[in-house]
Design goal:
The protein has 13 helices and eight strands. It is α/β, with parallel strands linked by helices and about 300 residues long. The protein has one domain: TIM Barrel (Alpha-Beta Barrel), CATH 3.20.20.70. The protein has an eight-stranded parallel sheet. The chain is globular and about 50 Å long. The termini are far apart.
């Protein structure tokens, strides 16, 4: 397989996993969010990834969500399922469960917590690739995983049999651009933090954008792709400034990305929010109040509708 084996492109949101107050999965809200995002112009979805709080989900719950995602996508775009785990055997088990659920592909990140050598990382991906029943999207998010897929490592992994793409979420423009230049001839390259540099990523030749912000900021975050591809770059740049400001709002003054995302969705009355599972906690107090004040300033049209 290679980049020509799939047709994936465009803005594909990384979706949340909504939980009820008792921490059970809200299946209806999960499906409604996917439906809303496709109606807004999404070209696919990424489920059970970091935005989907994969670490809080049992393996059977992840497989169940894969099936729900496939059903909700209803053929409108690919359902790509996260498989985050430390042990390669657990990743492989999730790949087969996602395949059985009808998923189109899988997101595979490096093992986390244990700091690995380059050889250990290569071996991990080789073992997973050898038994993968689905096309694989490499996932570089060193801030969370603790192990990075450097541009040089991406260059090597791009030649594995089942790798068709990479989601580059380092948040470092230099790292993203170097990865793009080294692997774009063989695999598709998706920009992770499109809220920060989606427009330059599209202009540089990225195949698409994968981000959590469409859960909250729709269609604005999706339009970073559509407006730039349509040549309406000045409008896209204006949206990029909003994205940068939203990223700052969601990650400062006692806030982190995923609790802030769900709190914003709940405030705006959007499906897919709900509660978080421990160890994450719902935003309260000044952190919550500051988020709402920022939303009123940055997304006045959405706040007015809500």
């Amino acid at each position: 397989m290679n980049r020509s084996s799939v047709s994936w492109a465009g803005p594909m949101p990384a979706i949340t996993t909504p939980f009820r107050a008792d921490h059970s999965i809200d299946e209806d809200s999960f499906a409604a969010n996917i439906d809303r995002l496709f109606d807004a112009g999404s070209s696919g979805v990424i489920a059970v990834g970091c935005t989907g709080e994969f670490w809080s989900l049992a393996l059977d719950e992840r497989a169940h969500l894969a099936g729900l995602a496939v059903k909700a996508c209803a053929g409108r775009g690919p359902a790509i399922i996260g498989t985050g785990s430390i042990r390669p055997g657990d990743v492989i088990d999730q790949l087969h469960a996602a395949k059985e659920a009808g998923a189109d592909g899988a997101l595979v990140m490096p093992p986390y917590f244990a700091h690995l050598t380059e050889l250990e990382l290569i071996t991990h991906f080789e073992v997973v690739d050898a038994k993968a029943p689905l096309p694989l999207v490499l996932y570089n998010i060193p801030g969370n995983a603790g192990n990075a897929i450097t541009p040089a490592l991406a260059d090597r992994l791009a030649d594995l049999d089942n790798v068709v793409a990479i989601k580059e979420s380092s948040g470092d423009w230099g790292n993203f651009h170097a990865t793009l230049n080294r692997v774009r001839d063989r695999i598709r390259v998706f920009c992770g933090p499109s809220s920060m540099f989606g427009v330059p990523a599209v202009l540089a030749g990225a195949d698409g954008l994968i981000d959590c912000f469409p859960n909250v900021w729709t269609p604005g975050c999706l339009d970073l792709w559509t407006l730039t591809k349509a040549g309406r770059v000045e409008e896209a740049w204006a949206l990029q400034q909003t994205g940068i400001a939203l990223t700052e709002l969601f990650t400062t003054e006692g806030r982190t990305l995923y609790p802030a995302t769900k709190a914003a969705m709940n405030y705006l009355g959007l499906p897919g929010g709900g509660s978080l599972r421990p160890p994450l906690q719902d935003l309260t107090g000044p952190a919550h109040d500051g988020l709402i004040a920022g939303l009123k300033q940055l997304l006045p049209a959405q706040v007015k509708v809500a």
